[in-house]
UniProtKB/TrEMBL annotation:
Name of the protein described by the UniProt record: DUF4861 domain-containing protein
PROSITE patterns associated with the record: PROKAR_LIPOPROTEIN (PS51257)
Organism of provenance: Nonlabens arenilitoris
Pfam families: DUF4861
Signal peptide from the UniProt entry: 1-22
Domain of life: Bacteria
Alphabetical keyword list: Signal
Length: 392
């Protein structure tokens, strides 16, 4: 983790902005007994007129500018604006920031580390990444190919992991290699590779609904919408066709985001037609070690993986909704998964991701499990954000 901390501090810039340009002040408090970084603060700036202007976040004490990202979203036909930034806050302390209105700035493309896109050149994947991890999942064309017996299709709503071991973006590079040489990204040339098999499993955090002694799942996504890419966050929406569980119609929509410096993707899933949902991690060869922690709401699977080790994990947002864990083993190909079952009332939020030993981020199962425990504590105790309007 120290490597990532150095990266974000190294790209902090000195501000020459006059304090009189501040339109908001934001005080961020850390009430936990450890230092915190790579947690995203979100401030609503919808009421601020940004015509030919940009916003920057400045440490009020040091005048340093933090990297930030302004996100536009449509809610009920109205455009909302949110500014994102990631403060570094020492244990049991607070820092105040000014949000300044400045001359319009172009986004530095070299700082876009959180990135996602639809990938039509590889059938119809949707892929996303940040500086630590990468993922993909599969669309309707890939599903149709399987259903029609066409070679090369994929039928799954599971989440595939791309094991990168560099901090710069690799999605476009790997897909470009794949166009020139089929399956090229299955070879590691120094950046990592795709050697994670998802099949019909849940992969890293796919959902399922338990029915009797088995699990029902959706098929591939049917539609997508990219919301934002940038230095702090990538986010998008995936829609799924209605699916059936013992006569109950399940409706599913995933709001997915991945922030800088984190190994876990956030899922906010709209799910109707069931009172319980299960989130799964594939067990692959079933030769790994399972850890579950009900009080902190997380589960982990640490497994030998080719010439390295791999940790997968899920952290629930709502710990009170947790029902049970199950290590589900079956003879059916790719259907053995580790599940956490939770109550759901229209929406469930959780985080799912991985840590690859070969990336140097996590060396042991203990390292990985400690990360999940730490992450869970931060989810339960978010940074306290106090916003005050114009200083003028």
């Amino acid at each position: 983790m120290k490597k990532g901390i150095f990266l974000i501090l190294s790209i902090v810039l000195l501000s020459c902005t006059d304090k009189s340009s501040a339109v908001l002040t934001v005080t961020v408090k850390n009430n936990l007994d450890f230092d915190r970084a790579f947690e995203t603060v979100e401030v609503d700036v919808t009421k601020i007129d940004l015509e030919r202007k940009s916003l920057e976040v400045v440490n009020a004490q040091t005048n340093e500018v933090l990297i930030s990202q302004t996100v536009y979203s449509d809610i009920e036909g109205k455009t909302n604006k949110t500014i994102l930034f990631q403060p570094a806050i020492a244990a049991n302390s607070e820092v105040t920031y000014n949000i300044n209105l400045v001359e319009e700035k172009q986004i530095d493309s070299s700082l876009i580390r959180c990135y996602s896109r639809f990938v039509p050149e590889r059938t119809d994947d949707y892929a996303w990444e940040n500086n630590r991890v990468a993922f993909r999942t599969f669309g309707p064309v890939a599903q149709k190919m399987v259903e029609e017996g066409v070679k090369g299709g994929t039928l799954t709503s599971g989440i595939d992991a791309w094991l990168k071991r560099v901090e710069y973006p690799i999605i476009n590079k790997w897909y470009a290699r794949g166009v020139i040489e089929k399956g090229a990204y299955h070879k590691d040339i120094g950046e990592g590779l795709d050697n994670f098999h998802v099949g019909v499993s849940r992969g890293v955090g796919g959902v399922a609904v338990k029915t009797d002694s088995t699990y029902a799942v959706s098929k591939n996504f049917t539609a997508w919408k990219t919301i934002t890419n940038g230095p702090i966050r990538t986010s998008f929406i995936l829609d799924y066709a209605d699916w059936d569980v013992n006569g109950n119609v399940i409706k599913e929509r995933k709001h997915i985001s991945l922030d800088y410096g984190q190994n876990l993707t956030k899922y906010r899933v709209e799910l109707s037609g069931t009172e319980h949902v299960s989130i799964g991690l594939t067990l692959h060869k079933q030769d790994g070690e399972v850890t579950t922690n009900a009080s902190e709401g997380w589960m982990s699977y640490w497994e030998p993986f080719d010439d390295s080790d791999l940790g997968q994990g899920v952290v629930l947002n709502d710990k009170e909704g947790l029902v049970d864990f199950e290590k589900y083993i079956t003879d059916k190909k790719d259907e053995s998964n580790l599940y956490v079952q939770s109550k759901v009332s229209e929406i469930i939020e959780y985080y799912a991701g991985f840590g690859w030993k070969k990336s140097g981020q996590f060396i042991t199962k203990t390292d990985w499990n400690n990360y999940l425990s730490h992450f869970s504590r931060c989810v339960d105790n978010p940074l306290q954000v106090i916003v005050k309007t114009s200083l003028k």
